[in-house]
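SAMPLE LOG
Freezer: B-3
Tube label: C17
Construct: single chain, 352 aa
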Amino acid sequence: MALLYNISVSRVLKRQGAETLLRQLPLLADAELAPQLHARLAEGEARLEPERPAHEEPWQTPGLRTVLQFAWAMTLSSLRPLDYACRGSGNGELARIIEKDEILADMAIKDGAFLHMREKMLANEMFHTEEFFVRHLHDLMSELMDAMPLKLKDLRNRADEAAHTIQMHQQEGLEPPENLPRHFEQLLRLLTALYERDPLGLGLSRGYWVTEAANHRQPSLHKFVRLAGDLLPPPLFVPYVELLAALASSPATAPHCFSLLTAAGTPPPLNLAHFFSSLHQYYNSLMREAPSMSRVETYASATPASKGLTARQLKDMVAMLRLVAVIAGRICKLCGVMQQSGVAHSGHFTAH
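STRUCTURE (predicted):
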């Protein structure tokens, strides 16, 4: 995390007079530092540029390299709007490197940066107890969504193509290929792991719901929630629903998620009215198939509980029920707080 911090400029860009401060950073002041760092991290570019030799010394921890590649790509991306400031510093080599931010991001994502961050960083119990760790990773994800929306759209398109390939193989009774790209799914699971816990009460997930921009990145975060849930293919349904549950895990964000799921334009798999209607129909079908059994026996029986549902449909239903439980619990908590404080609240939620 210390190394990620040292190759980041996000802390400077948030301050007034950012352009002046940037020129004082070693990344801009030292004409050799950034090119050498980029050469070490972007050694895989040799695959794309055969005339450029790769670095001979291998990384002992390749996963660490992918995370650093991703972080450095986000740094270059954040410097792109200030390219003239880089040129003004006399560091023309850095200005050239900035143009390769997307190439480096592609390399990092392809080599599993999202997976490594989730399994090696967020899995550490200490991670969510340090505000610096959480905020820095939040800034990296925000930069990705704000600066590279087309990259995210491309990842989603590839996920859709992979889902179609899986469906075609399943229809023919074949096992789908094991090397299908799962980068978008890994991104969703990374974000879920990042926001599902908030022991420090930072409330960073609010940025994904608040449409009026408190900063320039918030509209991009909100658009990502919409993009990720648009016409979901089956393999992405549970990861997306789990992400919604993570983003709705506070009294401040649960009402926004509820509004999304009850909006008129929300597609059927995610629309709460459709979900409860389907759940009621399934319940009625169970009652018709087991008329002689009591309700307790029906609920306790493992066989009728999954009858008529595929394994995937059962997982989808469980994920939606957990999301509903999260939203209901947080909204009830919000209403309790408002009642205790004497603030009158509307019946918008209770009406549903």
